[in-house]
Amino acid sequence: MEQELTQAQRVWHEHLQRIDRESMTISAYSRREGVSAQSLYAMRGWLKSRSAVRRVQSDASRELFTTVTVRDAADAPAGCVLVLGNGVQLRLLQPPDPSWLGAVLRELSERPR
User: Fold this and answer.
1) Same domain, 7 and 56
2) What is the mean pLDDT of the chain?
């Protein structure tokens, strides 16, 4: 379960948001505001790694859940077809093991698009 930011982390996050809004460098902002540039860089890295984890989880969720139409079993071909976001189709003889599917989706989410 993901934890909320602490009060101190929120303060640093607000500084980073102001830097983005004002299109400033961290160095210039830290001089102007009298805050530690090193701490800003460290918090930016920590927040990016945290958001990267959420983004990968979110991307995997988008890949895992989609609209499904159930047809009569007599009309359906044998096996399973997975259609990925880029249009690639994987035809399998049976539904995949969930852990295998999760590993495939994690690997695909880490590749540049």
Assistant:
1) yes
2) 75
